[in-house]
Amino acid sequence: MEPGEKVLSEVHLYHTCEALSTNIRNSVTRFEIKFPSSDSVQTKNNAEQEAINVDTTEPAEDRTEAEPCLSRLEVDEDGDLILPRCRNSEDKAVITLEHRLATELKDVGEQVWTAALLLCDYILHHKADFSGRTVLDLGAGTGLTTIVAAMTAKTVYCTDVGESVLSMAHHNIELNADLTSSCNVVVRELDWCQDRLVPGKENFGLSESDIADLLLADVIIAADVIYDDDMTDALLRTIQLLMSQGPAKTMYMGLEKRLVFTLADLDIACPAYTHFFEGLFKLQQNGCDGRQLLYSQVDEDLPMYLNYNRTKELEIWKFQSVIPNE
After folding, report:
1. Which of 87, 91, 124, 138 has its C-alpha lying 20 to 30 A from 237's C-alpha?
2. CA nearest 282: which of 223, 232, 236, 323?
3. Sign of dihedral through CA atoms 111, 117, 119, 125?
């Protein structure tokens, strides 16, 4: 990319964004989560059984009283339509996020990216793996994955670098407090370029107790963090640091294989993706201070809880540290 050139996530092309009057740089998007209600399967089964048992010799039942949405349309005193709602077989939740639109590469964390939505789908579909856990979100950006993890986890550390993106994440977590009220959500700066976890005195600086808690986290998540080779190298060092201490850990990463034409290959390639897995292979060979590092792609047809364009380039990867003799 050329200096000063900006990029725009395709997520913001498919969702309606509202401009903020209080902050002209930022916009707001509402992400709707749809998931089956606990009784929707039973309702469907009952409906199928009723269809089997229906007596076709009798007149069809008038359902307009049971389902107001099937009755005639009505208008209010101003002549506007009154639209009654049918009973919904799905539970819904809405996450409200403040974010930026087109940004330079250094500020892409202030946008929402597609692999984050895929990771959210994974978390929502595998709640048991996050329930009651301490979760560390690396490169959390706007805080979307933190908020979804906080819907089921005990504690979530939302981490990134920079006052601007951390303030945005903190604000978004407050906006969605109704979804995260049962979880302890902590926003902190975690710099991958440091060779260890360093306490800080700034607004979002790590405390000594934070560092102790982070090392005890048993689940790590990250999404859309593979885009710059230098940052990827720093991320790999951070993964090694975290995986080599505390309890055995599991990490889930959402990423997108970004296809580009490269002069080096004279072909379509995924250089950032390739660089990450080359580094990951070396990390696996070297180990994490005596621990084995395992990784594999999650090959699963996840249901879609959020609305986005899910392509074959979107992937979930699972990493595990294995402590010998455990």
Report:
1. 124
2. 236
3. positive
The tokens of 28 are what? 């707001």
Looking only at the bridges linking them, the beta strands covering 134-138 and 219-223 are parallel
CB 147 within 8 A of CB 172: yes
pLDDT digits (tens, 9 = 90+) for 143-191: 999 999 999 999 999 999 999 999 999 999 999 999 999 999 999 999 9
Long-range contacts of 204-207 (CB under 8 A, 24+ apart): 204/163, 204/166, 204/170
State the DSSP code for 36. E
- DSSP letters, 215-244, are HH--EEEEES--S-HHHHHHHHHHHHHHHT
260: number of Cβ within 10 Å: 10
Residue type, 20: L
The residue type of 129 is: D
Closest CA to 187 of 210, 168, 208, 204: 204
For residue 96, the surrounding DSSP H or E stretch is strand 90-100
- Whole-number Å distance between alpha carbons of 200 and 232: 23
Residue 145's alpha-carbon distances to 58, 138, 222, 275, 314, in angstroms, are 53, 10, 8, 24, 16
* Residues constituting the chain: 326
Bridging pattern class, strands 155-160 and 184-189: parallel
Q: Is the pTM of this model over 0.85?
A: no
* pLDDT tens string 132-156: 999 999 999 999 999 999 999 999 9
Domains defined for the chain, CATH in brackets: 105-322 (3.40.50.150)
Give the bridge partners for 30, in sequence order: 96
Tokens of 169: 């994440």
Work out whether the CA dihedral 146, 147, 153, 158 comes out positive or negative: positive
